[in-house]
Amino acid sequence: MDFQMDGLPPDALRRLVEEMPGLAIAPSGLVGVVAVSKVVEDAGVAVEVLSVEVREAGALLHWRSRANRSIGFFLAAVSITDDRGTAYQTSTASGGGDERSWAGEMAVIPAPPDDAMLTIVITSFGADPDLRMPGWTPLEPVEGHWKFVVDTRDIRRR
C-alpha cells in the first residue's frame, strides 16, 4: 500500500503504520459498505452501529451513542469475532461528541471475509485515563452489553 503523509520520511511512515496499523485503512481501496442501521440500549446508553466500511487494509466501524445522563468521554471497548474464526484487532480511529453523546469510528484489522457473520460487542464506554486534560475529572466507565450481528454478504460493493 502506498500513501504519503506530508513531511514524513518513508521509513518513519512504515514504522508508524507498523505501530498503528489502523492508519493504513482509510487510504486503502474501498471494497464496499455494509449498512447495519441497528440500535441496542443497555445501562442507559443507546448505541447505534451505522455501517461497516470495508477497505483493502481493514474496515472502519461507524457508530454513535447517546446516554440518558452525563458519562464524559465515550471511548468504546469493542471486540469483534466472526463465524470463520478470524482474529481481529480494534482501535479507536476517530471520535467526538459531548458528555451525553458521541460518534466515532473503530479501525478493524483485517478486513472481514466476504461471507462472514460478524459479532460486534461493546462492553463499556468511558474516559481514557491517558487523555487527561487540565481541570477534567473523568467519570466512572459505563459497563453494559451492546451486541450487533452483521452479515458481510450484505455488502454493497463499489
Keywords:
1 helix, Immunoglobulin-like, globular, 3-stranded antiparallel beta sheet, 6-stranded antiparallel beta sheet, mainly beta, 158 residues, 6% helix
Question: What report would you give on this structure?
Answer:
This protein is mainly β and about 160 residues long. It is globular and about 40 Å long. About 25% of the residues are buried. It has one domain (about 30-130, about 135-155): Sandwich (Immunoglobulin-like). The strands form 2 sheets. Strands 5-6-3-2-1-9 form a 6-stranded antiparallel β-sheet, with no helix packed on it. It has a 3-stranded antiparallel β-sheet with strand order 4-7-8, with no helix packed on it. Strand 2 and strand 3 form a beta hairpin. The chain has 1 helix and 9 strands; from the N terminus they run αβββββββββ. It has one helix at about 10-20; strands spanning about 30-40, 45-55, 60-65, 75-80, 90-95, 100-110, 115-125, 140-150, 155.
CATH homology superfamily: bacillus anthracis domain
Order of helices and strands: HEEEEEEEEE
The helical percent reads under 10%
What is the number of helices? Answer: 1
User: Which geometry do the CA atoms define?
Assistant: globular
How is this structure best summarized?
Helices cover 6% and strands 52% of the residues. The chain has 158 residues and is mainly beta.
List the helices and strands and how they pair.
Blueprint (H helix, E strand, L loop, with lengths): L9 H10 L10 E13 L2 E11 L2 E10 L7 E8 L6 E9 L3 E9 L7 E10 L15 E10 L4 E2 L1
Antiparallel strand pairs: 1-2, 1-9, 2-3, 3-6, 4-7, 5-6, 7-8
